[in-house]
TrEMBL record:
<dbReference type="InterPro" id="IPR053378">
    <property type="entry name" value="Prenyl_diphosphate_synthase"/>
</dbReference>
<dbReference type="Pfam" id="PF00348">
    <property type="entry name" value="polyprenyl_synt"/>
</dbReference>
<keyword id="KW-0808">Transferase</keyword>
<keyword id="KW-0460">Magnesium</keyword>
<keyword id="KW-0479">Metal-binding</keyword>
<dbReference type="GO" id="GO:0016114">
    <property type="term" value="P:terpenoid biosynthetic process"/>
</dbReference>
<dbReference type="GO" id="GO:0004659">
    <property type="term" value="F:prenyltransferase activity"/>
</dbReference>
<comment type="similarity">
    <text>Belongs to the FPP/GGPP synthase family.</text>
</comment>
<dbReference type="GO" id="GO:0005737">
    <property type="term" value="C:cytoplasm"/>
</dbReference>
<dbReference type="InterPro" id="IPR033749">
    <property type="entry name" value="Polyprenyl_synt_CS"/>
</dbReference>
<dbReference type="GO" id="GO:0046872">
    <property type="term" value="F:metal ion binding"/>
</dbReference>
<dbReference type="InterPro" id="IPR000092">
    <property type="entry name" value="Polyprenyl_synt"/>
</dbReference>
<protein>
    <recommendedName>
        <fullName>Probable farnesyl diphosphate synthase</fullName>
    </recommendedName>
</protein>
<keyword id="KW-0414">Isoprene biosynthesis</keyword>
<dbReference type="InterPro" id="IPR008949">
    <property type="entry name" value="Isoprenoid_synthase_dom_sf"/>
</dbReference>
Amino acid sequence: MTDQGFSLFEITLQQRAAAVEALLGELLSDRSRTGEISRPPRLMAAMRHGVLNGGKRLRPFLVMESAALFGADNLAALRVAAALECIHSYSLVHDDLPAMDDDDLRRGQPTVHRKFDEAAAILAGDSLLTYAFELISDEATELAPSARLALITQLARAAGIGGMTGGQALDLEAETVKPDEEGIIRLQAMKTGALIRFACEAGAIIGNAGEKDRERLAEYGSAIGLAFQLADDLLDVTADASRMGKATGKDAAAGKATLVSLHGIDWTKRQLAGLIAQAEELLSSYGASAALLKDAARFIAERRS
């Protein structure tokens, strides 16, 4: 712990978040880039509201720390981290729409469709999604073309029909047909876990790691991805809206099946402890170099907001 009471993990998380936010602020300015005709100011304002509104920036942290594990170039990792945050933010902008989760607050601020309108929110999300792939493919992301291609392919899979958007489709179906335990795990692995898994594997790709390392980091990402969703479901039951910065209790009100609703709070806490242990074991061969990634697993499972 530091003199201010913050752990090295918390300080590093804040530093990574600040670096990502600074880059996103620059990338999402109103100034047109080479090859662009113009940047509509209202669209850019909606995009910035969807991205630059706080948040822990956990997924970018995982990209950058996983890349650091293999001695990767920090700027390339930062740009990939920013791209991933664009994807994550687009998903939140669209999830908040009336046709999806119909939320008015996100991180304590009005959601994009509330501050602007639904059309602006849709276009802002679309623009963030496409911009993410431009960021990775751009030569300014100084990686070998094969690495950039691998990142684009894996991110598209994590964000698309077999990952996040497919998981959201299953989540909407679950409002009318409750899934069993296997179905809930599949849904959560897609909707929440896929981008977290990508974040961890991306670091290994950026660091030019071998196939075994890529697989190990991807498995670590899967473990903490499930832990993230279990913790989120716990918070939906136990936390209040002021702490979360968004509405809580919505899953229970909608009758949505979660592992918490199936097995209870105590079971869920035991599962979280097991997932932390699994994540730490997957990183054991990296020794002290993986200390912050181990801390991240505990942070995800024990978070309060």
